[in-house]
Design a protein that fits this description.
This protein is α+β, with helices and mostly antiparallel strands and 378 residues long. The protein is built from ten helices and 15 strands. α2 runs antiparallel to α3. The structure holds zinc ion (ZN) (2 copies). One zinc ion (ZN) binds next to loops.
Length: 378
């Protein structure tokens, strides 16, 4: 789930818009970005069209809309929202048949049966430490599933669907009309069975004859080490069942990595900043630094400067395939005391008297250069 816009904004409706207003807004915009109509950049049009479909799927479903209103995009994790980015136009048109049906626009062939079910999407959030080792996460999500009562055929137990007589079980009907070059044949979905080829005379009470019910599913997903933000872990066959076919769609888990309080990822390396005192930097010593696998002591050489970077080899993240780890880069920040006790002031005063070119070569060099420059000018 890459960063998403607000669904109300996408559809251009108020937050309290009713179902009809949402439907009207969606229809208007979807027709504007319809692949056959949109004149602008094709890829941009497709992205908009899919963004609209997703917004409409959520806002037109009271349960999903409520979750979105309360918790935003976050709340839709596992709610059974389809992954429109992986979907073809044909699938989107058949999902919202009631919207597009009246316009006679459904590229990809009317009544075309899918052999594979639709893909669903969800999000998985993991800690940065999990990227190091890989992890398993159990997630719960909702999906449309074959009805257990009727086994998915939509007929009341004890009865079975019968072959549609209108289309003879083909799901499609042909219409012939005279044209310039002879008879033109138009093939369209059978109006009686809606392309299924079968009709249910005695519908199953559990699913109202649709053959599908919404069910919760628990699944343990294995996240491999080295994964990056926004990558997809694809769970084969965990999406929705196909209408007539056997192969289920997939579940796409978009991986999000929680920000770490100390460590920032930079490719395979991790970066952190560690404050040290003025005397630690001057005298050298050891400081404790946070790493992906706990605290670690790190040596600071005497004379460390503010901004110096110390590299802890192989404390970074593993490469996806090889497992070879990056480094941890620790940037030292020297903290100059803002407040001193009188004792500290006295000691530093004593120290200051000893400062000379050996103690601060850069400062001395700077002063010499300054004198030379302005001396020459005046
Ligand atoms: Zn049923
Ligand atoms: Zn039929």
């Amino acid at each position: 789930m890459p960063d998403k816009r607000d669904y109300y904004e996408v559809l251009g409706v108020a937050r309290d818009a009713d179902g009809n207003a949402i439907k009207r807004a969606y229809r208007k915009l979807a027709l504007k970005y319809h692949p056959d109509k949109y004149d602008g950049d094709k890829a941009e049009g497709e992205r908009k069209f899919k963004e609209l479909a997703e917004a409409y799927e959520v806002l037109s479903d009271p349960a999903k809309r409520q979750r979105y209103d309360r918790f935003g995009h976050e709340g839709l994790r596992g709610a059974g929202v389809h992954d429109f980015s992986s979907m073809g136009f044909g699938d989107i048109f058949s999902m919202f048949e009631d919207i597009f049906g009246g316009f006679g626009m459904r590229p990809g062939g009317r009544g075309r049966r899918r052999s594979r079910g639709l893909d669903l999407e969800t999000e998985i959030e993991i800690a940065l430490e999990d990227v190091l080792t890989g992890c398993e996460q159990t997630l719960e999500f909702e999906r449309m599933d074959l009805c257990e009562t009727c086994g998915g055929n939509g007929a009341k137990p004890g009865t079975s669907p019968t072959r549609c007589e209108t289309c003879g079980g083909y799901g499609q009907v042909q219409q012939q009309s005279p044209g310039i070059f002879g008879m033109t044949v138009r093939v369209s979905a059978c109006p009686r069975c809606g392309g299924r080829g079968q009709v249910v005379t005695d519908p199953c009470g559990e699913c109202d004859g649709t053959g599908r019910t919404r069910r919760k599913r628990q699944l343990t997903v294995r996240i491999p080490p080295g994964i990056r933000e926004g990558q997809i872990v694809r769970c084969r066959g965990e999406g929705e069942p196909a209408a007539g076919g056997t192969e289920r769609g997939d579940l796409h888990c978009y991986v999000r990595i929680r920000p770490h309080p100390f460590l920032t990822r930079r490719g395979q390396d991790v970066v952190c900043r560690v404050p040290v005192t003025f005397s630690q930097a001057a005298l050298g010593g050891t400081v404790e630094v946070p790493t992906l696998s706990g605290r670690e002591e790190m040596d600071i050489p005497a004379g460390t400067q503010n901004g110096d970077v110390i590299t802890l080899k192989r404390r970074g993240l593993p490469a996806a395939g090889s497992g070879r780890r990056g480094d941890q880069c620790v940037q030292v920040r020297v903290e100059v005391p803002r407040k001193l006790t009188s004792e500290q002031r006295r000691l530093l005063g004593e120290y200051a008297k000893t400062e000379n070119a050996d103690v601060a070569p850069e400062r001395t060099g700077f002063l010499d250069k300054l004198k030379e420059y302005f001396g020459a000018k005046s």
